[in-house]
Write a structure and sequence with these properties.
single chain, globular
């Protein structure tokens, strides 16, 4: 049975995308769901956030371009049931190299398909770059669902229709006819401000079935954890950030794995 694959994306940087990928993945893994994280961002923030060293030739770059076996690139993390395919700096060059290849939009899907079937995975979370280039397009074409991380501010709403429009384009073009919007996770939520609440209300009005009930708060501990190479559960297990990601993971489990 194939794993359910999620692309965690937003074309804007600094909106909690990588933080959500690693902590949602860790929470799902803690529920006994075998989970693989795929770091598709050349900045390799998900890789370093898990305390894993970036090594040339050890990431997803070569399998993405050549179709070579991806299983040799999987590394264990410090969390049970959680694995990672690291990124590497060479991945930045893949944007150019992919464009000259045949079927360049489905390279990641092809690379992940055997891994998904043969290694007992239930969930794959892909951390996308903060652009809508070929690496993000490959991620979306490999995914069953897109999860958008949306910062709780008005400017973030402007990009929401753009990225949801990409889903429709990929479906209509046949590149990934099965892609669906799996959910919208509000991040950097500050319950002391009216602005955060109003943005949440606005998104809820337009996407009532997709928005997750759990909003991820803006906390210093969530910002600090990656610099120690730890998930929020390892760094501050009783804090509000850990509780929020656990609650979000419960929603994801109920929506997709129940």
């Amino acid at each position: 049975m194939s794993a359910t694959t999620f692309a965690i994306a937003n074309q804007k940087g600094g909106v909690g995308k990588t933080t959500t990928t690693i902590n949602l993945g860790a929470a799902l893994a803690s529920f006994g769901i075998p989970t693989l994280l795929v770091d598709m961002d050349p900045q390799a923030n998900a890789t370093s956030s898990l305390g894993i060293e970036k090594k040339a030739g050890a990431g997803i770059y070569e399998p993405l371009l050549t179709g070579s076996d991806l299983s040799s690139r999987v590394v264990a993390t410090n969390e049970k049931n959680l694995w990672l395919i690291p990124s590497e700096l060479d991945l930045a060059a893949a944007e150019l190299e992919l464009s000259s290849q045949e079927n360049y939009l489905v390279k990641l899907r092809e690379a992940l398909s055997n891994l998904s079937k043969n290694y007992g995975l239930s969930a794959i979370l892909i951390d996308c770059p903060p652009t809508l280039g070929l690496l993000s397009m490959n991620s979306l074409c490999a995914a069953d669902y897109l999860i958008i991380t949306l910062q709780s501010e008005y400017l973030a709403l402007e990009g929401l229709s753009q990225i949801t429009g990409v889903i429709q384009q990929l479906k209509e073009s046949g590149a990934n006819p099965n892609l669906e919007l799996g959910g919208i996770a509000m991040t950097m939520y500050d319950n002391r401000t009216r602005l955060s609440y109003e943005v949440w209300q606005e998104v809820n009005q337009h996407y009532p079935d997709e928005i997750f009930r759990t909003a991820i708060p803006r906390t210093v501990r969530l910002s600090e954890a990656p610099s120690f190479g730890k998930t929020i559960f390892q760094y501050d297990s009783n804090g509000v950030g850990a509780k929020a990601y656990l609650a979000l993971a419960k929603e994801v489990r109920q929506r997709f794995f129940s």
